[in-house]
Amino acid sequence: MSMKQTCLVVIVAALFLCCICVPVGAVIQEVTLKGTIATLIPQTNTATIGHPQQYGCDYPANGAPVCTYTPMSVEALTGTVPDVAAFSVFKNGDTVVATSLGGAGETWITLAKLLGSRPNEESVTDIVGDIGTIPTPLIGNYALDATTVPDCSACTGTTCTATSANVRVMSEGKEVSARIIKPGESFAYNGRNDGSSVAVTFVKGQALSSSCPGKAGMTGPQAISVYVVKVVPPISASQTNIRTATTTRSDEALKTLPPTASTASTPVPTTKSGMPPLTVIGAVGLAGLVLVMRKE
Q: What is the DSSP string of 235-254?
């Protein structure tokens, strides 16, 4: 076998390995963006977000991913809300982070209200939807993590109806409360001495079917759940925001909240966030294949 043929075999093998390394449960595309609530229409169950900026990450060869929001070419995007609770939580003019399923807009699976005077100091106070899809941290150094339990008798493909959710509340990176709640149930944590609190309602949800007997290895959409979250900020938060808004010296600026658990400002660890490195490997392999064929 010639050197060129050997190189060709190696490249094809690498590309094949990339393909088989893709997670078994394929996901529907999720798009996360930031903008301002322009309209809320309960009659059509929709919310329109104006001046959207799409969230995306660059993955350098060395170092952590660099994630930013980039203005989109459209003036507004409309989609159905995750739950009717959105119409009592949000109002026109609110700055939000939103995640849609299957493309930009059309179906919002999460809406999160932002508080903060500067882009790199924003934090979340309210969520309606799936808490795992928002890259911005909760206010007050809180974080949430939720795991749903499947009803193995009610499954379609990769997802099942969730019978309950195990919700954990983290404060300053440490777990301070954990509860198992069923659809429609709520609980709250207010154990800190600063006037803050976190309230969580599990509206409805799905769980992956892979943990059910005979369901492993199936492909299909990801599991989506709906929560309603309300975080009351610490008393000091409003004072900090006022100070930050009038700050001119860099040493006085409010420091970015440290990332914690599933609401960290780095990419949420989902199948989506794991795909870009695989894309890069595939692109390099394809480029090598083209070079070998040209030399022939």
A: HHHHHHHHHHHT--SGGGSP
3-state secondary structure 198-224: EEEEEEECEEEHHHCCCCCCCCCCCCC
CA-wise closest residue to 144 among 176, 168, 126: 168
Q: Side chain identity at 110, as an amino acid letter?
A: T
Residues 268 and 49: their CA atoms lie apart, in Å, by 22
The pLDDT value recorded for residue 236 is 79
Cβ contact 158:223 at 8 Å: yes
Phi and psi torsions of 52, nearest 5°: -70, 145
The residue type of 190 is N
261 three-state secondary structure? helix
Res 72: pLDDT = 97
Per-state percent for the chain, helix, strand, coil, to nearest 5: 25, 40, 35
Check the CA dihedral 123-259-86-182 and report its sign: negative
Picking from 205, 33, 31, the residue whose alpha carbon sits closest to that of residue 102 is 31
CA 85, 88, 91: angle at the middle one, nearest 5?
A: 125
Residue 50's pLDDT is what? 98
What distance lies between CA 296 and its chain's CA centroid? 46
Short-list 169, 241, 202, CA closest to 85: 202
- 211-269 pLDDT, tens per residue? 898 877 667 889 999 999 999 999 977 554 433 333 333 333 333 333 333 333 333 33
55, 32 in Cβ contact below 8 A?
A: yes
Strands 159-171, 142-156: pairing is: antiparallel
What pLDDT, on the 0 to 100 scale, is given for residue 21? 37
Residues in the chain with pLDDT < 50? 3-26, 240-296
- In this prediction the pTM is 0.73
Token pair belonging to 151: 């009803």
Q: Which two tokens stand for residue 78?
A: 């409309």
